[in-house]
From TrEMBL:
<feature type="domain" description="N-acetyltransferase">
    <location>
        <begin position="13"/>
        <end position="157"/>
    </location>
</feature>
<protein>
    <submittedName>
        <fullName>GNAT family N-acetyltransferase</fullName>
    </submittedName>
</protein>
<dbReference type="InterPro" id="IPR016181">
    <property type="entry name" value="Acyl_CoA_acyltransferase"/>
</dbReference>
<dbReference type="InterPro" id="IPR050769">
    <property type="entry name" value="NAT_camello-type"/>
</dbReference>
<dbReference type="Pfam" id="PF00583">
    <property type="entry name" value="Acetyltransf_1"/>
</dbReference>
<dbReference type="GO" id="GO:0008080">
    <property type="term" value="F:N-acetyltransferase activity"/>
</dbReference>
<keyword id="KW-0808">Transferase</keyword>
<dbReference type="InterPro" id="IPR000182">
    <property type="entry name" value="GNAT_dom"/>
</dbReference>
């Protein structure tokens, strides 16, 4: 009789501060989950990531399943001219890890870092059709305030 193969155990998901060694995986996951051909995702780039990592009170975290990137969040102090607001700008969970509470853990970690750095509020913007992101933010204490609609006037050919 052959011995049954032990089922593989899912590695525990661990949150860590984002480091330069995570950058390639973070960029690649962003390209998988954002449609970078449309606003507000057109600005997804290495410099967008680096701006938060280099920013005052960087609040950038990764969620790791062993050595695999399961998710990330990018935030830092300052939003428009408000230096006392924190900005949680980018967040993603890898599709195979979605629905497990990873993004909620990342939001909490990012907000805790920003609050500790003195943020009087944390601001994030959510594209109007992104119901998953809106549900994530609402369930973590964010309330919808002002909406901004991008109007586009196309040039005649
Ligand atoms: C939005 C996103 C980050 C959520 O990640 P996730 O790890 O699956 O989220 P969680 O499992 O932590 O869920 C958090 C909450 O959001 C809700 N939620 C998540 N996905 C949802 C969906 N598709 N529809 C409705 N609610 C959803 C969950 O039910 C949960 O609510 P609860 O706390 O009341 O139970 C993920 O869908 C994603 O990466 N999307 C693509 C990238 C993106 O659009 N990022 C946001 C813009 S930068």
């Amino acid at each position: 009789m052959t011995s049954p193969t032990a089922p593989e155990r899912e590695p525990e998901i661990v949150l860590e501060p984002m480091r330069a060694t995570h950058l390639a995986d973070v960029l690649a996951l962003g390209r998988r989950v954002y449609d970078t051909s449309v606003k507000p995702y057109t600005s997804w780039s290495l410099s967008a990531v680096a701006r938060h990592m280099d920013g005052e009170a960087s609040a950038c975290w990764v969620a790791l399943a062993g050595d695999r990137l399961a998710g990330y969040v990018l935030g830092s102090m300052g939003f428009d001219q408000r230096t006392d607001w924190g900005n949680l700008e980018w967040i993603a969970s890898a599709p195979e890890y979605q629905g497990k509470g990873i993004a909620s853990r990342l939001v909490k970690a990012c907000c805790a870092t920003l609050t500790e750095a003195g943020a009087s509020a944390v601001v994030t913007d959510v594209e109007s059709r992104n119901t998953a992101s809106a549900a994530l933010m609402r369930s973590n204490g964010f309330e919808a305030t002002v909406s901004v609609t991008l109007f586009v006037r196309r040039s005649e050919p």
